Amino acid sequence: MDLRFNTSLAEGYKSGSQIARVLTEDWLARNMYCPICGEVSIRRAKPNAPVKDYVCEHCKSQYELKSKRSDSESFQATFAFSVWRFW
Ligand SMILES: [Zn+2]
């Protein structure tokens, strides 16, 4: 698992919250697996889809990403990952 963000993706963004969102979304897409069933990748839900931010194709668990940028000088982003299951 690569713990670093691809900070080159933040170029062109001014808003700290936008930067945090772009970096955490990219990181999750590259590194996150489904904590419910162990599927090695989860996919980003389509914009405006009636599901949460990420979906596991295998067990259909849905995840919501919440990220925020801290106010420190060096870039830090924290995110919470929430799990929804529907069945
Ligand atoms: Zn799953």
Model description:
- With 87 residues, the chain is α+β, with helices and mostly antiparallel strands.
- It has a domain at 14-70.
- It is 18% helix and 23% strand.
- It has one helix at 16-31; strands spanning 43-44, 54-55, 62-69, 77-84.
- A four-stranded antiparallel β-sheet has the order 1-2-3-4.
- The longest helix has 16 residues, at 16-31.
- The protein binds zinc ion.
Keywords:
87 residues, single chain, 1 helix, alpha+beta, four-stranded antiparallel beta sheet, binds zinc ion
Largest sheet: 4 strands, antiparallel
Hetero ligands: zinc ion
Quickly give the structural class. alpha+beta
- Give the amount of beta strand, in percent: 15-25%
Helix percent reads 10-25%
Q: Termini separation (Å)?
A: 30 Å
For the secondary structure, the number of strands is: 4
| Major beta sheet, strand line-up | 1-2-3-4
Q: What is the residue-mean pLDDT, rounded to a whole number?
A: 77
Q: Shape from CA axes?
A: globular
Number of helices: 1
Uncertain regions: pLDDT < 50 for 5+ in a row? none
In sequence order, what are the helices and strands, one letter per element? HEEEE
Cα-based radius of gyration, to the nearest Å: 14 Å
